[in-house]
């Protein structure tokens, strides 16, 4: 799905762009731009940079400014302050490990489409009360995996999920085969050893392989 960076994205746009949203941890801001270019070359444009390191916001800013075609997002958004900082850095979407109304309001105020994290039926209901039907199932495998998503499809047929946490190339197809799963999130597209070595060709190859999962 073609998406123009800077356009008014929705959470569903983010989910539909590719079969896998890469979960990226940046320890060195200098690696952000070549890493993003490698992923975009492989057909993956929605890039979730997690706010787990001091370099994350600088990485988002660099990607937003220097990588045409990339759509940087912020992961591990845990507060209104995180949402505001991510938007200021140039993030175009947000992903949270859980959900509160304060996070939802903050993301709306700064114009960030949000994929809120949920792990229970009650959390799904809380997110839906605030208008969120595109959700991150996290941590997916420890929380019941594909079997849990199958069970949720009955009472929540309108909800679409991005399972993340324990998802890998080995089980991604099982999740993607479910009617309520649009994409998955995973860190295997950016293995730490490849990033450290600057092996961008390997990351491009992994990105291309991930894109093919949707049609496999």
TrEMBL record:
It is an enzyme of class 4 (lyase). Its EC number is 4.1.2.14. Pathway: Carbohydrate acid metabolism; 2-dehydro-3-deoxy-D-gluconate degradation; D-glyceraldehyde 3-phosphate and pyruvate from 2-dehydro-3-deoxy-D-gluconate: step 2/2. It catalyses: 2-dehydro-3-deoxy-6-phospho-D-gluconate = D-glyceraldehyde 3-phosphate + pyruvate. Keywords: Carbohydrate metabolism, Lyase, Schiff base. Pfam families: Aldolase. Belongs to the KHG/KDPG aldolase family. This is 2-dehydro-3-deoxy-phosphogluconate aldolase. It comes from Ramlibacter humi. The gene is eda.
